[in-house]
């Protein structure tokens, strides 16, 4: 993994994703020119959108749906491949451990305990990956439903008849996305001992108190 996900490649992927998402959401902004307009709520003239191109808006919502469901598909596919690979490796290690445990005079070689530890580690990794993927899908799936509804119902939009309902739905989905970004660190701290030890080394230097998640 370290040879594949180098810092340069990671940066290139992040920049590519940013540019792709910028291109996806660009039509609705280019189709909505800005200009001076009187705002009754503020009782003054301000720069705001003079109108919304419905066609550009529908294109943006459609592309957003495609990207969202494509991301879900990739996450589910990669998670399934990883889990299958880890389970296959864990089963192989269990077999090796079973053979090793039947050593001479019924004494297990030193490698048997190591294999058992590796199996336990793989099981923890599977749980961690499943939880992270589930949180991601559960947090972002409602937003794709909102955009899908906006694509099917033009009035369900920021300028449509059901704009208030649209804003309420978006507020709910944005909070879910924020929660997804916030809980990952807690999941890693509770399920990854290496992550927790690195976190403690970086942020708890000189602190004699037990690290986060440490057992008393």
TrEMBL record:
The keyword Transmembrane applies. Coiled coil: none annotated. GO terms for cellular component: plasma membrane. Its main location: membrane. This is G-protein coupled receptors family 1 profile domain-containing protein. The chain crosses the membrane at residues 12-30, 59-83, 128-153, 165-189. It is a multi-pass membrane protein. It is found in: Membrane. Signal peptide: none annotated. One of its GO terms (molecular function) is G protein-coupled peptide receptor activity. It comes from Elysia crispata (lettuce slug). InterPro entries: 7TM_GPCR_serpentine_rcpt_Srw, GPCR_Rhodpsn_7TM. The keyword Amino-acid biosynthesis does not apply. Residues 72-188 form the G-protein coupled receptors family 1 profile domain. Keywords: G-protein coupled receptor, Membrane, Receptor, Transducer, Transmembrane, Transmembrane helix.
